[in-house]
């Protein structure tokens, strides 16, 4: 067996052992198809006030500029679909934020995977990325055969759906490369039809500046009055386009204990959320991604829904 094939099998087997849903590999290089798409999205100001999206344009499209001498992008998926969801008559949190912040959980697994590569394969250099650097995660995962980009712009996988995180190792090791899969959205427009703020402006294009996740997490200013009544009770993030997607009928509960929510969180009513104190916020979201919006941000979002 050639070394590239052997090394690839070793990495994929270890990724599975660490709990990743799947692992795919692409050759590191310039993302030709994504370049005009990203440029158009930025030119149309569909990133809103997420100014950081304009930074490092070249690095975003070419990982060899981000990690010198890199040869391979190893893409990994980690399931976060919960076994239980929030009390129905309540303000809603995106499911990805139920448990411990995924950055910590995945970074730890990626460090273990890198250590394994060093131990088993040798002097391999690279970096681990979890949504924290200019890497087009979904594009690389699609290129690596882990799914296709759906009309809601999320990665979709047959038999699995889309409730998973995407992460990468970019390394200076030649591996066996996977091929992309075909698009299976067909004529379905469930996500486009269901989006409460019409943020999916055309199939495969999301205007980030209209997305509920953008308003409730990224936007630091006051929420626009024009959006009153259209947030569908989402106080942090939004799962509507994923919830209505037929492929998510196949979602199965994750097996990562760190993603389990504080039991109290699932049973909180609207009134509980409206009366939440800073102490309760700190207890509920001790190591959670919800801390990004801070206590004041969550209060702002709740009062916007309530008024």
UniProtKB/TrEMBL annotation:
Query: Any idea of its EC number?
Result: 1.17.99.6
* Superkingdom, natural source: Bacteria
EC category: oxidoreductase
What this protein needs as a cofactor is: [4Fe-4S] cluster; cob(II)alamin
Q: Does the keyword Metal-binding apply?
A: yes
UniProt GO molecular function: 4 iron, 4 sulfur cluster binding; cobalamin binding; epoxyqueuosine reductase activity; metal ion binding
Q: Which InterPro entries match?
A: 4Fe4S_Fe-S-bd, 4Fe4S_Fe_S_CS, QueG, QueG_DUF1730
**Which amino acids does the record list as binding cob(II)alamin?**
60, 131, 155, 166, 213, 238-239
How the cofactor binds, per note?
Answer: Binds 2 [4Fe-4S] clusters per monomer.
Residues engaged in binding [4Fe-4S] cluster 1: 185, 188, 191, 245
The UniProt record gives the binding positions of tRNA as: 220
Where is this gene product found? Cytoplasm
Q: By its UniProt entry, which Pfam families does this protein fall under?
A: Fer4_16 (PF13484), QueG_DUF1730 (PF08331)
Q: Which residues form the active site?
A: 131
Under the subunit heading, UniProt states: Monomer.
Homology family: Belongs to the QueG family.
What task does this protein carry out?
Answer: Catalyzes the conversion of epoxyqueuosine (oQ) to queuosine (Q), which is a hypermodified base found in the wobble positions of tRNA(Asp), tRNA(Asn), tRNA(His) and tRNA(Tyr).
Q: What is this protein called?
A: Epoxyqueuosine reductase
